[in-house]
Amino acid sequence: MTRTAGPAQRGAAVPFPRSTALLAALIALAPLGSGAARAEDPQVRTTKPEAGGPRETFRLPVIAEPETQARLYARANGFVAERRADIGDAVKAGDVLAVIDAPEIVRNHERAKAAVGQADARVALADANLKRTAALAGKDFASEAALDDRKAQSDVAVADREAALAELRRFEELLAFRQVRAPFDGIVTARNVELGDLVVGDQASNATPMFELARTVRLRVVADVPQSALASVRLGETVTVTFDRFAGEAFSATVSRMSGAIDRRSGTMRVEMTMENQDARVPAGLAGSAEFARGAERSVRVPTSAVTIRDGKPMVATLRQGAIEFRYVELGRHLGRTQEIRKGLSETDEVVLNPNGMLRHGDRASAAGAS
After folding, report:
1. What angle do CA 232, 237, 243 make, to 5 degrees?
2. Is 198 left (phi over 0), alpha (psi -120 to 50) or beta?
3. β-pairing, 50-51 with 90-91?
4. What angle do CA 215, 218, 222 make, to 5 degrees?
5. Which of 240, 339, 248 is nearest to 293 (CA)?
6. What pLDDT, on a 0 to 100 scale, did the predictor assign at position 139?
7. Where in the chain is the domain with CATH 2.40.420.20?
8. C-alpha span between 291 and 253 (Å, rounded)
9. 2.60.40, 1.20.58, 1.10.10, 1.10.287: CATH of 103-177
10. How far apart are CA 3 and CA 106, in angstroms?
């Protein structure tokens, strides 16, 4: 005899084992971690940056120039009466290098002193006349017009004295110009006058200086850097300088200035380096070469497709804990298929390849091929 299930039996749910039901509940309640990939996250292709490798070097010709140099011209007309310095002499600031005999300036200075004395006498006379006239005007023995006239004469006399004093100071300065002094500590590198030579002061046609002075305890090493190497030259960078005169010896210099403009004729940028020369071993004007290092000390390389420009600045998209993170980077050399990154990335970062314009900072994503 076959038994059929009743209505209550046909509508009843089939019970699960207790262990299976508990496992399903735990899976449903378990939250996804912040770095876990989700099925609905878009997938992106990623790669790891490569180490930049050893730094390459390149050499450029340089010229060692004095840190400070000056051409000294005459400011007074006359003849060279004394020459107290010669080529190669070490001088201190304020030392007299030459004395110019300028009799015309001496006579004019004496005349200016006499003019000041005359002006003082006129001031004293005008002041006395003003006092007498003021006393008479107080007793109604002089008119107001006469008193005003005496005041005007006194003011004119005072102004004349000020003009005479200014002329005297001018000739005193010209007298000081008879002595040609060193403006700073240095070495006389050129001497173009002899005893008895006529010198003309303050003349545009006077193209030959009396002396040339240079300070060589610190040198400016000058190089013209081509455009292709500018990315490898940084302010504050230390470079190695060598000279044929000092075979086998290297000097250290620091990049101190860059002109910031490309010369149209040569297509290069002027770069200056500072080199200490306390013992004055390296003479000014010596030619040599400087060795620069290409790339940063700890740079990485990424595919060129990983670099994008946003807001006018180079950026690289990275994938970190399942989210897109855009970083500003400092670019180095362009190496064809790869781009050198000086700052902003490390070898442990996960770089997104070909980031499209729809990606935004903080977007969820997962690496292509990740489980």
Report:
1. 90
2. beta
3. unpaired
4. 100
5. 240
6. 86
7. 43-52+298-367
8. 10
9. 1.10.287
10. 148
Cα separation of 191 and 145, whole Å? Answer: 66
- Rounded distance between C-alpha atoms, residue 313 and residue 217, angstroms: 42
Choose among 306, 333, 352: nearest CA to 52.
333
Q: How confident is the model at residue 35 (pLDDT cuts 50, 70, 90)?
A: very low
- For residue 178, with 0-12 CB atoms within 10 Å meaning exposed, 13-18 middle and 19 or more buried, which class applies? buried
DSSP 3-state assignment of 293? strand
The one-letter code for the residue type at 48 is K
Answer CATH for 215-293 from 3.30.70.1150, 2.40.30.170, 3.30.950.10, 3.40.50.300 = 2.40.30.170
Domain 43-52+298-367 has CATH 2.40.420.20: yes
Q: Are 352 and 317 in contact (CB under 8 A)?
A: yes
* Nearest alpha-carbon partner for 201 in 167, 178, 173: 178
Give the tens place of pLDDT for each residue, 319-364.
Answer: 998 899 999 998 877 888 999 888 889 888 999 999 888 888 988 9
Single-letter amino acid, residue 258:
M
The secondary structure of the chain in percent helix, strand, coil, rounded to multiples of 5, reads 25, 35, 40
Pairing of strands 90-91, 307-310: unpaired
Query: Maximum CA pair distance of the chain?
Result: 168
Neighbours of 342 (CB within 10 A): 19
250: which strand partners?
Answer: 242
Q: How many CA atoms lie within 13 A of 342 on its CB side?
A: 13
pLDDT in tens, 126-165: 999 999 999 998 888 888 898 899 999 999 999 999 999 9
Give the separation between CA 311 and CA 160, rounded to whole angstroms: 69
- What are phi and psi for residue 263, nearest 5 degrees? -70, 130
Q: Are 89 and 97 in contact (CB under 8 A)?
A: no
pTM: 0.59
For 123, other C-beta atoms within 10 Å of its C-beta total 18
